[in-house]
Amino acid sequence: MSEETIYTANPGKQLIRTVDGVDYQRIPIKTHLITKADRMEDVVLQYAGDKMQEGDILFISEKAVACTQSRAIPMEDIKPRKLAVTLSRYVTKTPAGIGLGIPETMEMALQECGTLRILFAAFCSVIGKLFHQRGWFYIVAGPKARGIDGPTEGTIPPYDHYVVLTPDDPNGTARKLDTALGHPVAIVDINDLGANILGFSQKEPTMDQLAKVLGDNPLGQRIHPHGHHPQVLNQSQQRPLSCGRSDPLRSCDLSGSFLSLDTLFLRYHTIWRR
Q: What are phi and psi of 73, to 5 degrees?
């Protein structure tokens, strides 16, 4: 049986993407729902170990990594201060998800980034809007604030009432998983608005090249056409782990048990192979 008949793309997505004249295959692989009880080294070996080939790169969703690091926090355990409540009211809602638009996620941004930095970011955001410039808040607040996700419609339980932070030390974690697996590993944050490579265990290919290969969001979560909630997939269709390959270069993508339009948790991963 050919590889193409064994592996299928996530619903609404393509298995193969061409970048700079090279075809990359992103192969979805189903996993269990990853929690803090899991060791990511065990997860990648269990689900991707026998699927990886020479030249493959494994991609893992940042949400999967964060949850194994106990960085998924129940909403009821977060006690937002008045400042968090006030600041969250001024967050612009986008199709990317809830972001810092609720007191609980804003509170975690204050804790993760520091109160002074978030206040300065808010000030810069106001100045930026005077010049019709957007995005200054997250530029100043940094990736820890940008990566915080709150629950949205369609999030798989129990994470439908959790706030998920960015993973600790994504580069170091990627290198540790590379050692365990024997193949390059990248930790990624991708959705229909773009791809961001948070950590990669190797110097080549570049993070920009990896982002291009994943730029069409092969994980499959989509923006709802009438709002900022992701379109929900049936759990039997969700694939947070995927593997990708190409002829000259093959890569595998383990995209985490949480595939999110920032906040949608899925139960499949993806291997990318060129």
A: -115, 125
The angle, 0 to 180 degrees and rounded to 10, between the axes of the packed helices 115-130 and 103-113 is: 110
- Contact between 139 and 120 under an 8 Å Cβ cutoff? The reply is no
Amino acid present at 56: D
Flag whether pLDDT at 107 surpasses 60. yes
CA distance 174 to 235: 27
**Residue (of 255, 246, 261) closest to 44 by Cα position:** 255
Rounded to whole angstroms, the maximal C-alpha distance in the chain is 60
Helix/strand/coil for 54? coil
Residue of 80, 152, 74, 77 lying closest to 109 (CA atoms): 80
This prediction's pTM: 0.78
Q: How many residues are given for the chain?
A: 274
Strands 57-61 and 185-191: parallel
The partner residues of 28 in beta bridges, in order of sequence, read 270
The confidence band for 234, taking pLDDT boundaries of 50, 70 and 90, is very low
Q: pLDDT at residue 250 above 70?
A: no
Cβ atoms of 166 and 147 closer than 8 Å: yes
Q: Distances from the Cα of 193 to the Cαs of 50, 258, 262, in angstroms?
A: 32, 17, 10
